[in-house]
């Protein structure tokens, strides 16, 4: 299960959820902005950076790491990345803190002795999701994080419970986002199921999915427009290609030239199949896997 992308999507939608995990959250937690940055020389990719607003007097930058796989050099990398970024942006920030999110203590690297001072300080926060408590008692956005750790036997009931809570507690816009998040989490957890089967498991209508509605509406509009312009088989192939690329771009942003070339090389029947199967994709990785299977 590719949890990193789920957590970072969650952080993008609700940056303040990170601070729900801390004993002392900044007073202006709702004003923080989530970003991902690259630090050159050497090249480091920092996935989760929470930037304070420009008018913030404390100017504390928060680094977040979601770690669901054992990495015996996680702290070496995390502190190297974070401190190098802080060094290069020292004029922008006055202090830094790091938050590492684990599913359980068993995922933490074993040799932490070289970093004992940092790990036992008030600058570094280690969060173990399985120790946060009952999902029914947690804040809704934090409960979404815990949902990613539940087994297949527990997840469906927990997901349905969170959907009910979202209808009761969240605004209509937030409720839509939470539905998207829960659906995405369950799609990753049950990779053998289609989007329709997951929706049936959760007891929701696909029409409630914003992404599904956008794709369907765009697909119908583009299909009508392209269909009118394509009278020949070659024209139909080009129309289908344009439709598929636009649908995928709508979902996942600009596609790489390699992916575009792979799609363009598909025979028309497979391209038409892709136009239907992409409704079940939850990330570009799903598209890449689909293309690799076709090319075998």
Task: Give a topology summary.
Layout: H1 3-13, E1 33-39, E2 44-51, E3 60-66, H2 74-88, E4 95-102, H3 116-119, E5 124-128, H4 140-147, H5 155-169, H6 172-189, H7 195-202, H8 210-229, H9 233-252, H10 257-264, H11 268-277, H12 284-295
Parallel strand pairs: 3-4, 4-5
Antiparallel strand pairs: 1-2, 2-3
What do these coordinates show?
This protein has 296 residues and is of the alpha/beta class. The chain has 3 domains: 1-131, Trna Endonuclease, Chain: A, domain 1, CATH 3.40.1350; 140-208, no CATH class; 210-288, no CATH class. Helices cover 50% and strands 12% of the residues. It has 12 helices and 5 strands. A 5-stranded mixed sheet has the order 1-2-3-4-5. Strand 1 (33-39) and strand 2 form a beta hairpin. The two termini are 23 Å apart.
Key attributes of the depicted protein:
296 residues, 3 domains, alpha/beta, Trna Endonuclease, Chain: A, domain 1, 50% helix, single chain, five-stranded mixed β-sheet
